[in-house]
């Protein structure tokens, strides 16, 4: 059979529905290209970021589709809510771990974990309790206790990517590090909480149920972390031992990408937190695996992971923009628009209060544990941290769709109100808070008095705990590392003490076995077979 005949056969077997899908996919991809081009043209302003651009284009496209279909639909494509978790979120979260500036991240590790984990739990408690009290009085429809707990997890998840697009890493390096680190830990904690809630038996609420919930949370957190470390180390060991790059960098790149995705799907297979697993795997692979590949593969993987993450982020906001005008969801609230506005306002208020409670409370606690005035957070810095974490984005949307829809649809008024309220909060926080963040940071923290001054007090770290391939390590020379002589030193300088113990263990055992900077010679570039 000739090529023409095959082509005719392929066209003939396309049904009308298939042709509509092809047309929709083509237009959707064209919109993604438009978001990238327009975002590039607006890059200089540092006000309108890529997320806002995709949202606005999605809203405009949804409005046009709504008019052309006479109010029947605002979508080009409709997706199962699991699409966000299986295909879209993994590259975003993995790239966050793979590209993290580990020098800054681990210098501020205690503060990041304090805000990202403990802070998220505080915010979750306040939002869940407040939603139960406030939304119950608005009569939006039937919601179970599990729904209210899920609401706490949904709106505790920040959108650090959108925030960081309006921050400058050179002007406020420590602020950037804190917001980024807290954001990724916050997202992982929120997803672990959400998964633990789904397994919670709410038929009997007592102290035993609370203990079971706590046990599930710790189990998911610890086992998911262990699985991410295990797969990351396995990828490093395989690539170091069999050295795929001597024949082709394509195999190295393919193995790294597939191992990264394997960590996520294995976590989902075992009912763990795939988000946390793939984030930890990203950190481990950037510390060990990345140094074991050829120069060509290093460049390729770093840009490949960043590109996949960027496309996924734009995809989510473009889809959310179109979904914001979905008639099916809004028809449940059209008879009582005031009620929908009230729900959105109540939830947004809880987000503001919940974040304020833990930021200012934990900042006070952090200041009490620090001896140097340069290390302490001033009021303006605390306000900046509070504001920088108010935006809600992809993780909140994905969790909301997972909890309140089935295959993107819902027929229950209460669920529809929650979806529309989530969309409203994501749109409002991304656009309004996103536009205000940059001038607010410049007003509160001028370049001369921002977080830069706080870096000087941290220079006692002669070398970073973990470094990526683009950071320069400072050699210690003949300077002896600080050796804690008592428990008091550990309590006063936990990051410094843990850093030194980990560094010795990493250099003595981990890097010789799994590879890493200084333990694997850089392979020459390959003239053929590169990516």
TrEMBL record:
Where do transmembrane segments lie in this chain?
20-39, 51-69, 81-98, 105-128, 217-239, 273-291, 303-322, 342-365, 385-404, 416-436
For biological process, the GO terms are: potassium ion transport; sodium ion transport
Location, primary (coarse class): membrane
Instruction: Please give the name of this protein.
Output: Cation/H+ exchanger transmembrane domain-containing protein
The way it spans or sits in the membrane comes to:
Multi-pass membrane protein
Q: Tell me a GO cellular component.
A: membrane
| PANTHER family per UniProt | SODIUM/HYDROGEN EXCHANGER (PTHR10110), SODIUM_HYDROGEN EXCHANGER 3-LIKE ISOFORM X1 (PTHR10110:SF162)
Top-level taxon in the UniProt lineage:
Eukaryota
Q: Does the keyword Transmembrane apply?
A: yes
Task: Quote the catalytic activity from the record.
Answer: Na(+)(in) + H(+)(out) = Na(+)(out) + H(+)(in); K(+)(in) + H(+)(out) = K(+)(out) + H(+)(in)
What are the subcellular locations of this protein? Membrane
**Domain Cation/H+ exchanger transmembrane stretches:** 29-442
């Amino acid at each position: 059979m000739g090529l023409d005949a095959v082509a005719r056969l392929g066209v003939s077997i396309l049904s009308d529905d298939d042709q509509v899908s092809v047309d929709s996919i083509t237009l959707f991809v064209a919109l993604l290209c438009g978001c990238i081009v327009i975002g590039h043209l607006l890059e200089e302003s540092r006000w309108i970021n890529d997320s806002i651009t995709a949202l606005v284009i999605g809203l405009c496209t949804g409005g046009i589709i709504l008019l052309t279909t006479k109010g029947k639909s605002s979508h080009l494509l409709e997706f199962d809510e699991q699409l966000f978790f299986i295909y879209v979120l993994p590259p975003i979260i993995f790239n966050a771990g793979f590209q993290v500036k580990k020098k800054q991240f681990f210098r501020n590790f205690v503060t990041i974990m304090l805000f990202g984990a403990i802070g998220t739990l505080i915010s979750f408690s306040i939002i869940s309790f407040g939603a139960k009290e406030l939304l119950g009085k608005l009569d939006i429809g039937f919601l179970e206790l599990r729904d209210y707990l899920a609401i706490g997890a949904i709106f505790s998840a920040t959108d650090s990517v959108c925030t960081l697009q309006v921050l400058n890493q050179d002007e406020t390096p420590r602020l950037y590090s804190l917001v980024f680190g807290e954001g990724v830990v916050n997202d992982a904690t929120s997803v672990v909480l959400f998964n633990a809630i789904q397994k919670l038996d709410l038929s009997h609420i007592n102290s035993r149920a609370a203990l079971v919930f706590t046990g599930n949370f710790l189990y998911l957190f610890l086992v998911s972390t262990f699985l991410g470390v295990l797969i990351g180390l396995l990828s490093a060991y395989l690539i170091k031992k069999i050295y795929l790059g001597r024949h082709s960098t394509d195999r190295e790149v393919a193995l790294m990408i597939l191992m990264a995705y394997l960590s996520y799907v294995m976590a989902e297979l075992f009912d763990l937190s795939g988000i946390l697993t793939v984030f930890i795997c990203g950190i481990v692979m950037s510390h060990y695996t990345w140094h074991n590949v050829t120069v060509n593969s290093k460049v390729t993987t770093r840009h490949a992971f960043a590109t996949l993450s960027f496309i996924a982020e734009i995809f989510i906001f473009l889809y959310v923009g179109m979904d914001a005008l979905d008639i099916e969801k809004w028809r449940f609230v059209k008879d009582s628009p005031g009620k929908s506005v009230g729900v959105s306002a109540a939830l947004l208020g809880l987000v503001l209060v919940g974040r304020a409670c833990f930021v200012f409370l934990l900042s006070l606690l952090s200041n009490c544990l620090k001896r140097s005035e340069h290390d302490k957070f001033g009021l303006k810095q605390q306000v900046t941290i509070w504001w920088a974490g108010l935006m809600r984005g992809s993780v909140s949307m994905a969790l909301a769709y997972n909890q309140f829809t089935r295959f993107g649809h819902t027929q229950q008024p209460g669920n529809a109100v929650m979806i529309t309220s989530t969309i409203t909060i994501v749109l409002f926080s991304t656009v309004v808070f996103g536009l205000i963040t940059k001038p607010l940071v410049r007003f509160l923290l001028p370049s001369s008095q921002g977080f830069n001054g706080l870096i000087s007090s941290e220079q006692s770290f002669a070398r970073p705990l973990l470094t990526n391939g683009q950071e320069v390590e400072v050699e210690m020379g003949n300077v002896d590392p600080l050796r804690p002589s008592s428990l008091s030193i550990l309590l006063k300088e936990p990051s410094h003490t843990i850093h030194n113990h980990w560094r010795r263990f990493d250099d003595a055992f981990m890097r010789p076995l799994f590879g890493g900077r200084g333990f694997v010679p850089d392979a020459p570039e390959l003239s053929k077979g590169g990516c």
